[in-house]
Amino acid sequence: MLAATVLLLCVALYPVTLTKTALFAPVWLCFLLLVSTYLEARIAVIVSLLGPIAVGLVLAALSSAGLISESLFVNYFGNINFRMIAFPSVAIDVYNDFFSRHETTHFCQISLMKYLMACPYDEQPWLIIAKSYPVGNMNASLLATEGIASVGSALAPASALLAGLILSIGNQTSKGLPPRFVILSSGIVTQAFLNVPLSILMVTNGTALLFLLWYFIPRQPFAEASKTGFKARV
């Protein structure tokens, strides 16, 4: 009952945020629940990525054969295969093209930095990109924002390494928790990871709070459930 209430609250956020993440969050979480229940954790993670892609490819074949309507194929493929999977990679290419010919942001997309240094831009990177490319506000991952946009392509790997170290520390806070619990509790965060900078991911999207909750959650109930032969509930 509690889980159903949470899923309904996710949908209720859509009229406020108008984001596809809020709209499709219940479906995505139910899918993660399904695969994490019947599959080993590592396989479940792989299936959570390849499964939606495979469905899109099957729909493409069925649409070409005239077995399903083209609108069904376009709606699914556009939202899943393109927007969820391919678009984050496209964003990296666009950011690389733009900032190879323009000054980098020097991390000025982080509000605090504007008080510490002179910033070359007054707007966020995705708004800057929107003025040069007809793609709307192109939100992008840390690889594009804290990487390419902030320090340029040459130093982007170093920035990505630092971001990876931060996330690895957060990952360590989940040690001792059931894999299924970790997969479900981070299900929406992993989607945001592909589309927002690390600073926004940690603060606005609540990833820092999630890491904190992982750290303080008692491990004993899960350990006792494992010893008695019962699968820990999430």
TrEMBL record:
Keywords, ordered alphabetically: Membrane, Transmembrane, Transmembrane helix
Organism (species): Bradyrhizobium betae
Transmembrane segments: 46-68, 148-170, 200-217
Top-rank lineage group of the source organism: Bacteria
Keyword Transmembrane helix on entry: yes
Protein name: Uncharacterized protein
Keyword Transmembrane helix: yes
